[in-house]
Amino acid sequence: MNNPPNSRLRKMRTWTPGASLGELIGPLENKKRLSLIDLASNDYLGLSQNPRLIEAARRTMIEEGVGAAGSRFITGSRPIHKKLEEELSKWLGFEKVFLFPSGFQANLAAVSLLANRKTTVITDRLIHNSLLTGVKASGAKLKRFAHNNLEDLERLIQNCLKQEQSQPPLVITESLFSMEGTSPNLKKMAVLCQKYQVMLLVDEAHALGVIGNKGKGLSHEISAPITMISGTFGKAFGSGGAFLATNQLLGENLIQKSGAFRYTTALAPPLAGAALEALNLIQENPDWITNLQRKSKSLRLKLFKQGWEIPEGNGPIIPIIFGSDQASLDKQLELESKGLLTVAIRPPTVPEGSARLRIVVNRTLSEDTLNKLLFHLGQRQ
User: Fold this and answer.
1) CA torsion 301→306→311→317, rounded to 10°?
2) Which among 5, 48, 223, 377 counts the fewest CB atoms within 10 Å?
3) Is the domain defined by 7-38+286-377 classed in CATH 3.40.605.10?
């Protein structure tokens, strides 16, 4: 079996955070310290070390504790949880929002709530492992459509509805795919699901604060109903934890039936405080989103001109596909030697033969840094 995609990096380096830079300490036999510019993390807006987030987390920790010390139904609920849920509900336009300690846990809860052994779940072929794990845990029957292919999706829905079923199918997609940097035509997908009266779950983890109107993701302001979305605070929000957003009825069902929500220690209050401050900053600075999209689009175009095959998209995730695991690792180490932190992503995280560098643009990157990256990547051979 192949090693996890980042295993070699973990064995070789220890990361010490710094504003937009990070220091990597080499193996014990190599005492040289390298300062690397971050082109790999999901800190899209550079908020993880923003002074306002740090102060919000510190203040919340003093007022409400380091940990919640219980589930939301026992002693774990804090004022900051309710405030964050209310503000997210208003921002996204959903009736109910529920916080979770992690995105993986939120996705497990979402699928388990919407599907069971009598349900057919139809997913994009490239959805995140947490969603696939949720399908497996629910006992539902799994069908997968070609990536972002609405014709294939409609075919599977039609085939599913021809069979006698007691539960409506559930369709699952992501709004910004974490390893491809691509997005579906979510508006058309939602209309399609409405046409056949099937449920639609959208993972907005990598999109919130990044794409869509004012960084609200692709689900916002779509007229056709979306059953539920999941989102995280560990990416553009620079904090940690996650949430589900849905309607009043499903929200009540989640409270009553979701073990993943009921039987876990609540999100740490300082993380909730930092996430709320990040939401404030995102709303105060809409130009951050437009500038990030402009910077990402510019880098995509320049890479294309250098001969690299870049999937279509307008988000900050840009895969540089080498195919060979070793070629990806070699390029990672070469870029490290030039002061640029990238990570080789290999199977099983991506399909066999599609090993890549996952380049991530963030708001703090300078044009000089991006030009340096382009220079050292060079022309596609």
Assistant:
1) -70
2) 223
3) no
